[in-house]
Design goal:
The complex is a heterodimer of chains A (about 240) and B (about 280). Chain A has about 240 residues and is α/β, with parallel strands linked by helices. Chain A is built from eight helices and six strands, in the order βαβαααβαβαββαα. Chain A starts with about 25 loop residues before the first strand and ends with a helix. The chains are: A alpha/beta (about 240), B mainly alpha (about 280).
Chain lengths: ~240, ~280
């Protein structure tokens, strides 16, 4: 799967980006650099005013999961019904949708919380429900728009770990928008650094899989070195 | 996982009712008892004639003695009230759904709904009673006009306050217009609709009473308002009070019933229906 970009909106200018199947790509940048806009255009929620997105397989265009910054759950539905929503909207029979949603909730470690309503769940658990909903259709592409920005650091670390495990098991493609250097280094193999006014791509850095395999990666010197490198790229981007 | 279910907050209490709830029941009851006692005492002490101001005991006695005829009148008023409320609820809901589907329809019709709302019902009730032959239907229309607007305006606001991200999510999954309405907009609007319904419940009773007052002079209606008028003409002030008490009690009962309905429908998910919090 590949996408090519060349758009000319006010928010994003002359962005060219190719995303390969199974990539874990982070879009890193300060507020207003157009990273969310870029994500929404990939999702088809906003149309580019110039340029286009090419899909290697046009069917992939509809095969997307999206996680918003807020959990964005339906407060009147249980966790199970929230996760089953994408399937039910696609016309999957209700009992089958429920079974698959149940399975997905277990994958995000929420077994036993099927009948809980969003307001009974903590912020981290709501976000897990939201991730389960995005993954329940087994999408080829998962788009995440600063999904953990509103969570406390302990919860964020745990969800980072769990997301990485899910990705390593399933190998779907991820485009992850964040403004956290540490999060991007921890999660992504490809880190695309963006700069604001107008939003554009200024650098791309790589964190090889073998580095990530290091023991206790989050506190390892390799991790710190990558963070420093990405930080520099980001400050260069801000200065430019 | 350490983050467990956020436990439902449960207060200690007596007989399964929390202290706060007892306070809510007892404090107003005490005020009521003091007020009624003072009233009874004042009437006896100053020997106020019963055709000026009857004491609460006499009013209660009159209510019991005339229960047969008063309950028939109550039934008639209730019938108008509930029919008006039902029509207001279904028509208000239908029209607000129509508004939500088309901005043009909303913009062209909403001002007329406002005109209907701001025109005093007392002023148009005589016209309606002249135009409509069937007095029942005339009363129904009057009560409906009063009750209609809160439901329409509340539900319209509700249908338009859907979470933008949820709308995007439905769009992403290719939801049809019907799915968006049924699974997203209507549930979002539900608390707003129920709040409107609670206001309209009281208003439809007021509308029915006002219309009966206007029509009452024709002598064809026999609802509670007509009993109040009749008692007034005959200087049967205790009977007038008894009918008045019945009207108030009915209004309170309607409000409580609709509050309970709203609580039962929303308690599982809506913030307004939190534990022990009922307005």
């Amino acid at each position: 799967m590949a996408k090519r970009y060349a758009t000319g909106t006010l928010a994003v200018q002359d962005v060219g980006l190719e995303i390969g199947r199974g990539d874990f790509l982070a879009l890193l940048g300060p507020s207003g650099c157009g990273k969310s806009t870029l994500l929404r255009m990939i999702a088809g929620l906003d149309a580019p005013s110039a340029g286009r997105i090419d899909w290697a397989d046009p069917a992939a265009r509809r095969d997307i999961g999206f996680v918003f910054q807020e959990p964005t759950l339906m407060p009147w539905s249980s966790a199970l019904r929230n996760v089953a929503l994408p399937l039910e909207l696609a016309g999957v029979p209700r009992h089958e949708a429920a079974a698959r949603a149940r399975e997905m909730l277990a994958r995000v470690e929420l077994a036993g919380f099927e009948d809980a309503y969003p307001r009974q769940l903590s912020g981290g658990m709501r976000m897990r429900v939201s991730i389960a909903r995005a993954l329940v259709t087994k999408p080829r592409l998962l788009l995440m728009d600063e999904p953990f920005a509103a969570l406390d650091e302990i919860t964020r670390f745990r969800l980072n770990n769990d997301l990485l495990k899910l990705w390593q098991a399933e190998r779907f493609t991820v485009v992850f928008v964040t403004h956290s250097v540490f999060e991007s280094v921890f999660l992504a193999e490809r880190i695309v650094v963006m700069a604001p006014r107008p939003g554009r791509i200024v650098a791309e850095l790589h964190v090889p899989a073998e580095d990530r395999a290091a023991e206790e990666f989050r506190t390892s010197p390799i991790y710190a070195a990558h963070c420093r490198e990405v930080s520099h790229a980001l400050s260069d981007a801000m200065a430019a | 996982m350490s983050d467990g279910l956020i436990a439902e907050h449960r207060e200690p209490g007596i007989l399964g009712i929390s202290y706060t709830m007892w306070l809510r029941i007892l404090a107003p009851s005490l005020i009521g008892v003091i007020f009624l006692g003072g009233w009874e005492w004042a009437v006896r002490h100053y020997e106020v004639p019963r055709y000026i101001l009857p004491g609460p005991i006499l009013v209660a006695q009159t209510l019991v003695r005339n229960w047969g005829s008063l309950s028939v009148s109550l039934g008639i008023t209730l019938q108008i009230t509930f029919m008006a409320l039902a029509v207001a609820a279904s028509l208000g809901l239908a029209l607000s759904v129509l508004f939500a589907q088309s901005r043009i329809i909303e913009l062209s019709l909403f001002p007329y709904a406002v005109i209907l709302q701001v025109t005093p019902i007392v002023a148009i009730a005589p016209l309606i009673i002249i135009w409509v032959d069937n007095i029942q239907v005339a009363l129904l229309i009057c009560a409906w006009i009063v009750a209609f607007f809160p439901i329409l305006s509340n539900t319209t606001v509700g249908l338009n306050s859907t979470d933008r991200n949820l709308v995007d999510l439905f769009r992403l999954y290719g939801a049809s217009r019907w799915q968006v309405l049924w699974r997203l907009r209507l549930p979002t609007a539900m608390p707003y609709f129920l709040a409107g319904l609670r206001i309209s419940g009281g208003l439809s009773l007021i509308g029915a009473i006002v219309a009966e007052f206007v029509a009452g002079s024709g002598g064809r209606a026999s609802g509670l308002a007509y009993r109040i008028l009749e008692a007034g003409y005959q200087l049967q002030i205790p009977l007038m009070f008894a009918a008045l008490v019945l009207v108030s009690a009915t209004g309170i009962a309607i409000f409580l019933a609709l509050s309970l309905l709203s609580h039962l429908l929303l308690r599982r998910w809506h913030e307004s229906a939190g534990a022990g919090d009922r307005r």
